[in-house]
TrEMBL record:
Top-level taxonomy: Bacteria, Pseudomonadati, Pseudomonadota, Gammaproteobacteria, Methylococcales
Signal sequence interval, chain numbering: none
Residue stretches spanning the membrane: 12-30
SUPFAM superfamilies: Cupredoxins
Protein name: Cytochrome c oxidase subunit II
Chief localisation class: other
Gene3D superfamilies with a match to the protein in the record: Cupredoxins - blue copper proteins (2.60.40.420)
Length: 173
């Protein structure tokens, strides 16, 4: 079997590139300790509105007894529910998001808040909003003809203006 010298060079080049990609994967996994999610939380998208956490009257911002802030959001064609969320600045906030229908993405510009919302799974992300202001929460994954209307508003207020006491619900309840 004869392989032309130019083809042999391309084969070597492809093997080197594949080796570099594999080395990058192993480096991030072993040295940087970056792994895909392992403890996936599943949920039935068809009965999402009947669940304890994602029922319509449970959506919005909750201040837990230990002082942590949790936001439950449902992404559905064509909006995020609740439509308006108020949060304190400089405080870690955990978002728990589920999709009622198709694949969605959540992105809040000028923050590190961004995640995919896959039907049948609960997405969880924790972020801190450093300064007060209004932030749009946008869908960054095309989800149908009304995709451009899929948004919500996050209003971040100064920590001393935050109205919630531990164990209480705030906006969206």
């Amino acid at each position: 079997m004869h392989i032309h010298p130019l083809e042999r060079k391309w084969i070597y080049l492809v093997l080197v590139v594949i080796g570099l990609f594999l080395a990058a994967i192993f480096y991030t996994a072993l040295v940087r300790n970056i792994h895909p999610p392992s403890h996936l939380e599943t949920i039935d998208s068809a009965s999402l509105h009947l669940s304890k956490e994602f029922a319509e009257d449970k959506l919005g911002v909750w201040t837990e007894p230990d002082g942590t802030i949790k936001v439950t959001v449902v992404a559905a064609r064509y909006g995020f529910y609740p439509r308006e969320i108020q949060l304190p600045a400089g405080t870690p906030v955990t978002f728990r998001i589920a999709s009622a229908d198709v694949l969605h993405g959540i992105h809040i510009p000028m923050t590190n808040m961004g995640t995919m919302v896959v039907p049948g799974y609960v997405s969880e992300i924790t972020t801190t909003f450093p300064k007060p202001g209004e932030y749009p929460m946008l869908c960054n994954e095309y989800c149908g003809l009304g995709h451009d209307h899929m948004w919500s508003k996050v209003t971040v207020v100064a920590k001393d203006s935050w109205p919630a006491a531990p164990g209480t619900a705030t906006i969206g309840r």
